[in-house]
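Sequence only, no structure available. Ideas?
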Amino acid sequence: MKELLLNQETNVELHPIDSVIQVTTTEDRLKAFLNIQPPDNGAKPPTLAAMEERLALQNVTCGIHAETLKELARIPQYNQKILIAEGIPPENGTDGSSVFQFSVERECKPKLNSDGTVDFLDLNLIENVEKGQCLCLITLPTCGTEGLAVTGQKLAPIKGKPVPSFLGHNTQLSSDETKILSKVDGQVEFVRGKINVNETLTLKGDVNLSTGNIKVNGNIVVSGTVFPGFTVEAGGSIEVKGPVESAILKAGTNIKLYSGITGSKMECSGDLCSRFIENCTVFVKGNVKSEYIMDSDIKYSKNLEIIG
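Reply:
I predicted one. Tokens follow.
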């Protein structure tokens, strides 16, 4: 028979009141909590099935702490916020990164030789690169890993940000997009956020103590004078607008001197054109053309033309 409870003061029958099971989730849906209000008037504590049913009604289906539920069914804990389910947080992707393989900010200072001496004519002004050379290593961003909410939905991660594009003149990405490569032989520079490789170096001034000796893989144009004691070498061509005196010029292709040259040494694999040549030693694999030549040792493979 059903046992009835009576209010001792009013002698009125009291009806049993079952436990109230509340389920709440965090805003990110990564945690769910259980709060049980105690039964009253002789009602029975919540069963495992009742708690599981309440979780299902709130769509909490993943990451449930089954052992905690069983323990609550055995020994109920009332009016407490109990962690009952945990999801899997997403792992955000990592941002891309880059490492330059050349000096972005060149420091012009004399070269220190291995024997402790200082070469004041080598100021490290230019950095030469070759075709196909790696100029920048790039680490690609990652997409991250999806998470899982306690309600079963997938949680999207935040993707990593790619590095900005450093591609400039005569540069290209490798096929796997992890390297920036030079497309030509030349001189590398970093200007306004871009990597450029210049086939022709234009020197707006003289070759003197402020520049040191000049050696480039590509071409060079000197707007001023090549002063005594200095060397200009180019894998490509050399053009000098001012006079050249007691210097050394070496070119992989042609040499063109708009003024002239005295007391110097020259060699090139292409043609030589100069206004005049005095007291020089010259070796040319192509043609030689000049207004006049005086007191010089000239060796050439093709033609010699005096136009003065």
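The mean pLDDT is 90.
Hope that gets you unstuck.
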